Amino acid sequence: MTERPPISPRSPRAALEPEQVPPPPKRSARARSPLVVAGNAIITVLLIGMLGAGGVFFYGKQKIEAPGPLQDEKIVNIPARAGMNDIAEILQREGVIDDNRWAFIGSVFALKARADLKPGEYAFQKQASLREVIGTIVEGKVVQHPVTIPEGLTSEQIIERLSENEIFSGTVREIPREGTLLPETYKFPRGTSREQVIQRLQQAQKRVLAEIWERRASDVPVKTSDQLVTLASIIEKETGKADERSRVAAVFANRLKQKMKLQSDPTIIYGLVGGKGTLGRPIKRSEIMQASPYNTYVIEGLPPGPIANPGRASLEAAANPARTRDLFFVADGNGGHSFTETYEQHQKNVARLRTMEKQIQNDAVEPLDEPAPAVAPTTTETGTTQDEPAPKPAPRARTRPNR
Fold this sequence. Notes:
Dna Ligase, domain 1; mainly alpha; 403 residues; transmembrane helix; transmembrane; single chain; two-stranded antiparallel ribbon; lyase; rod-shaped; cell wall biogenesis/degradation; membrane
């Protein structure tokens, strides 16, 4: 056991008096230094600042990543020259961000994205977070609008369509040369200039034409790629059926090889109306033999240029026609055509078509006259005047006997 110190006897008076506590040690001069005081204050401020910054960072990160208020996907247009405050106001008005636009502005600064915000039309996803919203604008993920240019339109008709489309801007200074635009479905952002659209269609046509010309059949009766486009434009206007293009191409290729006139009605129409594309009435018999650089009932070989802008399929057909001996084709009454090698069989097909037409025609419709033969210069139409329209076509098909 540990020995306790001996207890000294005290007087009653001394026992009643409190014991005196020794005085605290004196603070050193170093502890009382202003530098130390200042250092302690700085450390305290830094600690508080770090805690505050951590809290702000945690809150900001949570705010940036939190789902937004947008209930459904929405397209919003941010105009050119819109500043950060303008963008925040637009997004707030459209419901992409909540009422606290400062959270968006703060997030832009936090992500160092102020200089990278781009104008354009954007599609924001449902409940897009601030990070996703800002990322979409910074990356310039603008909405791409599909625009389809149908095959067989003239350049003038294509320009008219582009002029009517509100997503494009500006005007076209000059109508492009016929046959230099590639009909296809393209995608453009809102605000694309119409001149840029034309340039893209022309570039696409040059690329596709070069590819097709490179792998054309060796016996194609055209000498240049421009002539190939001209032939393809006639094929394009003669049939819209995919499975017929190569066979129609074969008819015209065989005629060119045998020095026969092409006798294509669409070339007559183009010679009459040019780039407007449509005549709006049947061809008159007087117009069939009317002199025109484009009238293939009169001229030998191909016309001087395309009569429309052919699509890829017609270019392919012109470059690689079917291996047939067909020289004639006529509408079959069902939306397609009947093809033959001889004029005699062709006449039978024409007669069959006339019989079908008579069965479906209303009594109020004037009966069709006997059509002119395709290749027989000594044989002419009878029973018609020079100003009388050519035979009326059957529904959805042309009926001229040379086709």
